[in-house]
Amino acid sequence: MKNSNPPDDRTSRRILPIACATALAAAFTLSLPQRAHAADVTPPPVPDKLQVPEGAEPFLVGHARGTQNYVCLPSGAGFAWTLFTPEATLFRDNGKQIITHFFAPNPCERNSNPNVVARGPIRAAWQHLETSTVWAAADPAHTATFATDPDFVKQGAIAWLLLTVVGAQDGPIGLNPLTKTTFIQRLNTSGGLAPSSGCSALADVGHQAFIPYRADYFFYEGPGEGARCDANAGN
Asked: What is the per-residue DSSP string for 162-206?
């Protein structure tokens, strides 16, 4: 009788290389989760002055829908519309709501104005639904005319901005999806400019205007640490 290898041995020899290749592929895939995720957040080209520092990496983008809210106030010898808060909701690509955007006192900074009761200066704020919050400020050097460069910014749209995070707090149960943020870009804007009329006389003072706008907010981490503080920071 002719000897032959049992069928199970032949099957095992075929399966072993396949199993090894599958394991290697899985290991390679698992070794790159952060890079793959970061690659999904791709900011558009921006003017040089709105570039984030080298080493900063985008980790989240939120698509904002809301209003820029203005009030008519005395200004110099006349009157002008003054922004008193944005009011917007940020969504993921899939339409899921993730963040609200508004103005709020930053408890991570000491308020240097003795006439203001608010705990910390008023800053632009973003609060995640998991309740971690960041506050950011725009450097005047990043809000010049290039922020409304028509090569980038649509006609009639609010400026693009680069903001530096100046405060960050975890949520009440320690959740912190935003607190690693170091920089925020406001890009791809439409609408939101103050009205061109309706604020020219004393009788107009106090009138408000809620102007619809859209924008994409890109959140970056690094280089270095964020601006996290505890609940007792500030004043």
From this structure: EEEEEEEE--TTS--SSTTEEEEEEEEEEEBPPPSSS-SSGGGTT
Using an 8 Å Cβ cutoff, are 71 and 208 in contact? yes
Write down the domain spans for the chain: 57-221
The residue behind tokens 């072993």 is 16
Sequence letter at residue 146: F
Residue 227 and residue 166 in contact, taking contact as beta carbons nearer than 8 Å: yes
Per-residue pLDDT reduced to its tens digit, 72-91? 999 999 999 999 999 999 99
CA 205 to CA 198: how far, in whole Å? Answer: 10
Instruction: Fill in the amino acid letter for 106.
Output: N
Q: What is the distance between the alpha carbons of residues 213 and 158, in angstroms, rounded to a whole number? A: 8
pTM (two decimals): 0.79
pLDDT at 176: 85
pLDDT at 19 over 50: no
- Cα–Cα distances (Å) from 81 to 71, 74, 146, 150, in that order, read 5, 9, 22, 23
Query: Amino acid identity of 211?
Result: I
φ/ψ bin of 84: left (φ > 0), alpha (ψ from -120 to 50), beta (otherwise): alpha
Q: How many angstroms separate the Cα of 9 from the Cα of each of 6, 14, 88, 229?
A: 6, 9, 65, 63
Chain-centroid distance of CA 83 in Å reads 20
Give residue-wise pLDDT tens across range 192-214. Answer: 999 999 999 999 999 999 999 99
For 99, the token pair is: 């963040």
Q: Which of 87, 79, 63 is nearest to 200 (CA)?
A: 79
SS3 148: helix
